[in-house]
Amino acid sequence: xxxxxxxxxxxxxxxxxxxxxxxxxxxxxxxxxxxxxxxxxxxxxxxxxxxxxxxxxxxxxxxxxxxxxxxxxxxxxxxxxxxxxxxxxxxxxxxxxxxxxxxxxxxxxxxxxxxxxxxxxxxxxxxxxxxxxxxxxxxxxxxxxxxxxxxxxxxxxxxxxxxxxxxxxxxxxxxxxxxxxxxxxxxxxxxxxxxxxxxxxxxxxxxxxxxxxxxxxxxxxxxxxxxxxxxxxxxxxxxxxxxxxxxxxxxxxxxxx
Length: 257
Description:
The chain has 257 residues and is α/β, with parallel strands linked by helices. Helices cover 36% and strands 10% of the residues. The protein is built from eight helices and five strands. It has a five-stranded parallel beta sheet, sandwiched between helices. It is globular and about 70 Å long. The two termini are 23 Å apart. The relative contact order is 0.15. The mean pLDDT is 96.
């Protein structure tokens, strides 16, 4: 375990967050631009929905008593919904009202002063699930052994994306509308979404590129103090080191959150 020196960005979500570490994934690119400023921690959990995410979240976010000894979370992204939006009888399905309640609960774990995980310095961004390409997804599932039926529908996934925007509005939390960004980039043509996904569900490099730029633009607009261009390096650039007394200029500079 490294010492408590750099604070962090935590990415919490399902497989689409987990896949952010793939080449050209959004979390990989985020880690690069925030190098020496904020560590990027990917807590993507393939297959998870919001119901299963809550008990995990309560374990990965430090309690008040633990916080003096661990890095602070400067920014938290919450990106669920692709699995919640599965259609019954999928075990991953979470009804829409429960999905909205779960997202709200995840936010309140951080925001509520009565929560044992209350973290007033943590900024939160919600991310909508991306649109599903039922043509690609259906073909992928049909090719498996044994073949599987289509487990998601385009309009249903859109309703879950709309629900994220509702929760964000109610809680005063900025929202990355990935659903709309990708659908617009596809010319509002479901079949053209194949440019951004190889299986109709998960994003490829082109899809993650859109997510990355949308995330950076949203940070600049909604949380400009956390934009990577506005943050100092925690340890001085080498050109600023006091050559006569190096140690005097090599102390960590913690961010003001």
